[in-house]
C-alpha cells in the first residue's frame, strides 16, 4: 500500500459563459497533452451541462493541485480567462468533497454513460454538440438535468495501474485518454423510456464520432458505464480469465455473484466463463 499524507491543497471550480467552450476545450487539450501533463500534482475536469430554468448551457472547470500553492503554473492560462464565479482556494479534501456533493440535487432518477478516446480538442466540442442535439426533444422533462464531465487519464496513471501485479482492468493506451461521463437526472418514472433513448443516442453518436476520427478507445470506467454498455469488453480475454479465477478462488460458493447477493448489472463470472 502506498500511503500519502493528507494536507491542504489547491482546488475549486470556476464557471464560464457558454461562449467560452472553444477556449476551455483548447486549454483542456493543452493540459492533457502538453508539458503540464508530466506534473503529477495537477489534475482537472470540466463540465458542460444544460440549465432547464434558464434554457441555457453551463460551463465549469475544476482545478486541482495537490500542494498548497495558489495559482500553480499549469493553470496560468486558464486563470487568465474571464470567469463568472470562482470557489478557488487552499482547503481540505473534505471541504472540496462537500462542495461537489452540494451541486447535485438529492433524489430523482439517474442514468450514467461513458465514452473514452484519444484527446483531439475538437472531439470535446463534438461530444458536447451531440448532447445539445439530443436534448432538444426532452429538455422540458420535469427535473431534467444532463451534464457532461470531461476529464483526462494520463500516462502516469496508466503506468501506475500496472504496478504491484497490475490492474485487472487491462487498461493500455498509446498516450493520455479523455474519459467522458454523461450524467442525466429527471423526476418521474413515466419519462424513463425517453431518458433511456436520450442517453443511448448520445452513446451511439459519440462512439461513432470518435471511431470516425480514429481516436476511439474501448476502455470504459466501469462506474460510469450504463447498463446497456459492456465495460468488460475493453478488458481483454486474459484479464477476464484472471478475474474469473480470482472470483472462483475467493468465492467458490458464488455468494457474491448473480446467483447470490450481487445481482447488479455487470457480472464478472458470466463474462469470464463465456
From TrEMBL:
Gene Ontology terms for molecular function: flavin adenine dinucleotide binding; oxidoreductase activity
Residue span(s) of domain Berberine/berberine-like: 221-257
This protein's UniProt keywords: FAD, Flavoprotein, Oxidoreductase
Record PANTHER family: BINDING OXIDOREDUCTASE, PUTATIVE (AFU_ORTHOLOGUE AFUA_1G17690)-RELATED, FAD-BINDING PCMH-TYPE DOMAIN-CONTAINING PROTEIN
Name of the protein described by the UniProt record: Berberine/berberine-like domain-containing protein
Amino acid at each position: 500500500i502506498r500511503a500519502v499524507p493528507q494536507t491542504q491543497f489547491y482546488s475549486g471550480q470556476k464557471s464560464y459563459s457558454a461562449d467560452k467552450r472553444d477556449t476551455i476545450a483548447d486549454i483542456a487539450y493543452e493540459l492533457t497533452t502538453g508539458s503540464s501533463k508530466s506534473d503529477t500534482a495537477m489534475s482537472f475536469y470540466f463540465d458542460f451541462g444544460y440549465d432547464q430554468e434558464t434554457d441555457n448551457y453551463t460551463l465549469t472547470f475544476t482545478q486541482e493541485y495537490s500542494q498548497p500553492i495558489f495559482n500553480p503554473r499549469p493553470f496560468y492560462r486558464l486563470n487568465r480567462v474571464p470567469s463568472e464565479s470562482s470557489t478557488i482556494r487552499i482547503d481540505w479534501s473534505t471541504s472540496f468533497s462537500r462542495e461537489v456533493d452540494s451541486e447535485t440535487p438529492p433524489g430523482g432518477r439517474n442514468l450514467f454513460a461513458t465514452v473514452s478516446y484519444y484527446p483531439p480538442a475538437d472531439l470535446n466540442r463534438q461530444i458536447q454538440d451531440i448532447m445539445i442535439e439530443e436534448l432538444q426533444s426532452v429538455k422540458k422533462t420535469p427535473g431534467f438535468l444532463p451534464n457532461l464531465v470531461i476529464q483526462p487519464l494520463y500516462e502516469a496513471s496508466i503506468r501506475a495501474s500496472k504496478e504491484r501485479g497490475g490492474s485487472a482492468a487491462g487498461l493500455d493506451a498509446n498516450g493520455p485518454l479523455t474519459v467522458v461521463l454523461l450524467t442525466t437526472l429527471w423526476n418521474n418514472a413515466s419519462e424513463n423510456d425517453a431518458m433511456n433513448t436520450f442517453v443511448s443516442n448520445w452513446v451511439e453518436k459519440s462512439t461513432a464520432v470518435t471511431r470516425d476520427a480514429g481516436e476511439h478507445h474501448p476502455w470504459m470506467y466501469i462506474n460510469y458505464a450504463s447498463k446497456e454498455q459492456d465495460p468488460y469488453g475493453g478488458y481483454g480475454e486474459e484479464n477476464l480469465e484472471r478475474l474469473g479465477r480470482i472470483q472462483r478462488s475467493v468465492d467458490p460458493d458464488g455468494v457474491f455473484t448473480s446467483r447470490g447477493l450481487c445481482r447488479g448489472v455487470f457480472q464478472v463470472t458470466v463474462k469470464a466463463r463465456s
